[in-house]
Design brief:
Layout: H1 4-43, E1 54-59, E2 65-70, E3 75-81, E4 95-98, E5 101-104, E6 115-118, E7 140-151, E8 154-164, E9 171-177, E10 180-187, E11 191-194, E12 205-208, E13 213-216, E14 222-235, E15 241-253
Antiparallel strand pairs: 1-15, 2-3, 2-4, 4-5, 6-13, 7-8, 9-10, 11-12, 13-14, 14-15
Amino acid sequence: MLPQGKKQITHSLKSQQIHMKKYFLGLAVAALSLGLVSCGKKDEPKNPQQGQVKTVVIDASDYTKYVYFSFEEGKVVSTTAWDDEAHKSQTNWDLGLHRYDFRTNSGLSGKGQGGAVETSSENINDKIAIPAADKFEVDKSQRQLVEFSHGADGAKTRYEEISANLVLTTTQQITMQDGRPVYKILKKGAITLDLGGHGSGGGPSTTLSNKVYLVRTASGKFAKVKVTGYSTPVKGKDGSVKPASGHITLQYVYPVQ
């Protein structure tokens, strides 16, 4: 049997050991919690503006129609005739496409808060500052090819002065000489179809600006947009696969803060 004093010392040591075990166990739990929080932070995007880069191919090949895309829904929401006025009162679309012509939900095209501005960046992943509201250009109008067909008497074309965003759309001056259209490019947009060689033995050429554009949506939010293609392989009735123009490939990030 231990003396009373030694019993108290032994009991005290055991108590200290129990407290020390609880202390180190607490430290271990805290460290584990911090590690989990730290791991969670690493999984978050480093730049909240980047979001997810999405790619969509939109068939805008019909000369007689405009196709309307919503960044919010990530899909085409309507397709209308080029002269249909219903789109002007709708705010469920953000970007209109017609061959190589574009609209935003703004100005002459719609009652939304849309608009567009060209940036100096060519990389969709770049962080781009949102400029002042007055830097965004709203839709105006220019002549667009709304009918094109080949027949026994040659090509049949029809041009109409309709709305377009002249940042995204190449601005051209079209005049008629000897019954033929003469094209002069005033300002290049996301896609430039140069028809200047038509009628003089030269063929058309199509180029991309490779620029990233900021598009303000109908609701006043922002998307980064880059056009990366203007044609896509399509299988014909005869089984052959050929590139079809007017199928527009877009990269976009939405929303941009």
